[in-house]
Write a structure and sequence with these properties.
heterodimer; A: 380 residues; alpha+beta; Cytochrome-c3 Hydrogenase, chain B; 14 helices; B: 228 residues; mainly alpha; Rossmann fold; 3-stranded parallel sheet; two-stranded parallel sheet; 11 helices; 45% helix
Amino acid sequence: MRPENYEAKRQPPSNEFELNFGPNHPGIEGNYAFRVKVSGDIVLEGKADAGYLHRGFEKLMENRLWIQNIAITPRICVPDPVPMEVIYCLSVEDLCGQEVPARAQWLRVLQMEMSRFAAYLFYFGGLGSTNGMYTPHYWGMADRDLILDLFEELCGGRVYHIYNIPGGVRRDIPDGWLERVSSTFDYLESRLKDYDDLVFRNQVFIRRTRGIGVLNQQEALELGVTGPNLRACGLPFDVRRDDPYLVYDQLDFDLPTEDAGDNLARALVRRADLFEILRIIRQVIKALPDIDGPIRAPIPNPLAWNVPAGETYQRVESSKGELAWYVVSDGGDKPYRAHVRGPSQTHAVQVLEHLAKGARLEDIAQIMFSLDACPPEVDR
Amino acid sequence: MKNLENIPVEQRRRTNPLAHVFDEFMAFCQSRSLFMLHYCTGCGAVELPPVMTSRFDGERLGISPMVSPRQADVLLVTGYVSVKTLKRVILTYEQMPAPKYVVGICSCTVNGGMYWQSYATAKKLSDYMPVDIYIAGCMPRPEAVISGMRDLMEKIRTGKADSWKDYFRNYDHYLGQQQRLFGPKWQTPTDIIGEAEHYGLITKNTRGEHTRLLEEHQKRLEPLEMRL
């Protein structure tokens, strides 16, 4: 960039300035941009600028076989990929009327909760580093790697494990894997005390986040907020409990809530969620050895698999919120239409624009991270 | 030192014996402190924090993230680049000071990967900017990333990582590819030809039909309009 290529634009005198956050900015999560208009350090208006990660998933899926689509579904949300596979499989099973064996259902629950734990550790790291604390980021990544190792042993992939298939899961668990899961999560539980000392009881963190980005219940419902962000506003809604899928109705867990609706409440809800995830994982580990049987229902030849015509809308709870898919089949070997309703679409665009009004400039990145949006899911 | 600056980079090695020693020392130093640009361009970016943090620890090799393109040496293109991102990637690349290196991580930068059918992504990264090292995989493990970075370090130390010179020497080709994708009025505020003259890297492929088109369109750039 050469200064002589630039010419100052004459503008009427004003104390309003316009700033671009991102896409190449350390305070932005992923490849995402946010444009703000500031006066002093108060943000007057913000505008989300998404589309840097658009790959046209919904169109790509129309050109692939039902079985091929499993491989591209986890790419929609990178930090938490398992719910994407599971919900695609649930949609296809619903269209075909397939019965999933009990053992596969328990294995899916176990995977989803492990993935949720890993996504939360990723989230705490990001939230810590927006406040200038890098240690939670380093610890969170190292602890997340232990979970990724378990996934690698189960299915070969660290992040994208294409383990689910319509009708069940691809293969059974290795010998002694459940003991290793159990000991890993025991270790992670013993680490949570350190996270509390480092972040959640840290006065720097509490004073930076308390009362920032307040969302009340009415606004949250109008803007379509779901998941932990909704529970931080005092509304205990969760698809796992209120519209149970898989075997969540046989599991015993609570839904932690907070009333404040600010950044601190959003972090504390996720912090309290970790205990519930540990409870679910322990119940699954206890129940899984007693459930025998196949891990997969028989499926027809995958290369000539005509799914019966119809449409379905399935939803699951991912670590970001309520994730839903609308899949239409015209009776052919490819989906006629597949639409993703990701939780991040509302969190990263409407909610962020709403919360940015009147916020301080230094809190914008923190609000963005505390909403835990996932930019690839916005763009798809 | 002042005399060294007068010799174009390309001829230093051949003419001045002192510069020969000096260049090798510089290449060693450059290979031991690589600052990666903190630009997460795709899903491969999720495997970069494990590379940097406690378990695989890239900082023991002198590889560390840097937030600004002005201070970075390595541009990591982690995954698919959509057309909207590619404009920013090229602008970022041109802002980085030479010597600069590009690492294409994930299969999507090699040939489009899983998105070869997509209407929104650029398929082959080396069509639009020169690439030093490709790391294949979807996504590559952190060990693979570290191994690729060690290959890059070795290439820099032996003076073989010269993709940035390739960009100056064949600027017309790269600009033509970019114009084919973004339209004939595509331009960045960077003066590549001026920089190529500075480094003594002007060849017969630096200027051409596409750069003439650029000069026709080129006028003093207005500040970017923000639509709120």
